[in-house]
Design brief:
Layout lengths: L1 H18 L8 H11 L5 H13 L2 H20 L8 E6 L2 E7 L3 E6 L5 E7 L4 E6 L2 E8 L4 E6 L2 E6 H10 L1
Antiparallel strand pairs: 1-2, 2-3, 3-4, 4-5, 5-6, 6-7, 7-8
Length: about 170
């Protein structure tokens, strides 16, 4: 009888984590598998064969299940993704950039160069800043739930998000 009560309690707690979290989440594990698969080779046909193999083996299904049931719920309750620290490569107009998530933002490096920058978020002031070559430049500050302040060098602009959304909806 005690074994049944523990099983029922475990089932209820697990179900509550999924149903009460109200969080879609970032699906970090699933997206990592998908990103790896899309860049596994330079041949789209070989990548498709890899996809089919991962689908049959149920790698995609298991990663989606783990994200939906475990990792996204943990991300909601703790505020941090357990799959954080992700790294990716982004193509830009001046080359490829290596982007790494950090505890406070993102570190970006131009591949093949010494150029780098950090985009950091300060929880206390709710401000994103750009740190480059020893210089810190504020980019945007979230004043409250409806207001953001954008910085453009010496000038700044305060935007009321509710008014902006109303203007867009009226169009």
């Amino acid at each position: 009888m005690k074994k049944i009560k523990v099983s029922v309690a475990t089932l209820l707690v697990g179900t509550s984590m999924v149903l009460m979290s109200s969080c879609i989440g970032s699906f970090g594990l699933f997206n990592k598998v998908l990103t790896w698969n899309s860049k596994a080779t330079n041949n789209k046909f070989v990548n498709e064969l890899i996809f089919l193999g991962l689908f049959v083996l149920p790698v995609y299904e298991v990663s989606l299940f783990l994200d939906g049931v475990l990792f996204n719920s943990l991300e909601f309750w703790t505020g941090k993704s357990p799959i954080a620290g992700a790294e990716t490569t982004v193509k830009g107009s001046k080359g490829e950039y290596h982007v790494k998530a950090t505890a406070t933002g993102y570190h970006v490096e131009l591949i093949g160069s010494t150029a780098s920058a950090d985009f950091l978020f300060d929880e206390a002031s709710k401000t994103w800043t750009l740190n480059e070559n020893g210089t810190s430049t504020p980019l945007v500050q979230f004043v409250d739930d409806n207001t953001a302040k954008f910085y453009f060098g010496a000038s700044e602009m305060t935007v009321n998000m509710a008014n902006t959304l109303n203007l867009l909806a009226a169009r």
